[in-house]
Amino acid sequence: MALICLAACTSKNTPAKPDTIATEMTYGKLVYYGQYYDSIKYHVLALDLYSDGLTLDSTDHMVGSGTNLYLSDIFVPMTDTTLTDGKYNCAQTPGNQTFYPGKNFEGTPTGTYILQVDNAKVAQILLCTDSTFVVSHNGQTTDLLFHLKSEDKSYNIHFKGVLDYEDRRHL
Fold this sequence. Notes:
The protein is mostly beta strands and 171 residues long. 6% of the residues lie in helices and 57% in strands. It has one helix spanning 2-12; strands at residues 24-34, 43-51, 54-56, 62-64, 66-76, 86-90, 98-99, 103-105, 108-110, 112-118, 121-127, 129-138, 141-150, 153-161, 164-167. An eight-stranded mixed barrel has the order 1-2-5-7-6-12-13-14. Strands 3-4 form a two-stranded antiparallel sheet. Strands 8-9 form a two-stranded antiparallel sheet.
């Protein structure tokens, strides 16, 4: 009888495997911070992309299920306030059209990372290193193609649409 209970208890505690990482993002926000770091002579942008099924509520909390791709520090020249066309490379040191790799900072992801969200709860965090993305514009439409690496896996993620833009220099 104890063996049956143990087997039943074990099967109930097995975590569900997260869904596959989405390859198409359907909503995106670009945030401009200006020269965020005094010692770094570049403007800083953040990029926040969401797959179908995952949205933000009125308090900017994620609701639903899907994939979120976040890049916290993208560096562009002091003359730019947005992403310009070209290739951006993951780097440990800020430079023109570079972005920081993903890191675990005291239990919180930072830099470049992918969140797999299930019913508004984070089911998986993938820190991305050795990655690139390419930006191109056609009028107001932004086309972003990411080649991201996390541990021994690669992810190709795409966004094409109009990015919401937020200026947070004075907040």
